[in-house]
Amino acid sequence: MLDDLILGMAGAGGDGVVSAGESLLSAASSEGYHALMTKSFGSQIRGGESSCRVRLSTKKVLNPGGALDVMVALNWEDFFKFGAELPLSVNTVLIYEEKAGPPPETLAARGVVPKELVPVGITELTKKSAGSDKAKTSVVLGLLSGWFGIPSEAITRGLKKKFGNKGEGLLEANEKALAVGIDYAKAHPLQAPHVIAKPAGTPGSKMLCDGNDMCAAGALFAGVKFFGGYPITPSTEVMQTLTREIWKYGGTVLQCEDEIAGLGATVGASFAGKKSMSATSGPGMDLKTEILGLATIAELPLVLLNVQRGGPSTGLPTKPEQGDLFQAAFSGHGDVLRPVLAPTDVEDTFRTTVECFNIAEQFQTPVILLSDQEIAQRKEAVDLIDTSKMEIIERRVPTEAELAAKPYARFALTESGVSPITHPGLKGGTYLAAGIEHNEKGDPTSSGAMHAKMNAKRFRKLEPLKKRADLFEVQGNPNAALGLIAWGSTAGVAREAVQLAKAEGHDVKLLVPYLLYPIAEQVYANFFESLKHGLIVELSHQGQLYRILRMFTEVPKGVRSFTRDGANPFQPIELVKTLVELKGLPS
Amino acid sequence: MNAPLFQAKDYKSELKPIWCPGCGDFGVLQGLYRALSAIGRPPHEVAFISGIGCSSRIPGYTTAYGFNTVHGRSLPIAQGVKLANPELLVVIAGGDGDGFSIGGGHVAHAVRRNIDLTYLVMDNQVYGLTKGQLSPTSPKGLETVTSPLGSLEDPINPLLYMLAYGAGFVAQATPADMPGMSALIEEAIRYPGFSFVNIQSPCVTFGEDEQQLKAHKGKMKTLASLGHDSTNQLAAMDLARAYGKELYTGVFYKNPNPPPTYESLVKLRQAEQSKKARARHQILEAYLQK
Ligand SMILES: Cc1ncc(C[n+]2csc(CCOP(=O)(O)OP(=O)(O)O)c2C)c(N)n1
Ligand code: SF4
Ligand SMILES: [Mg+2]
Question: Do domains A4-204 and A209-383 have the same CATH topology?
Answer without folding.
Answer: no
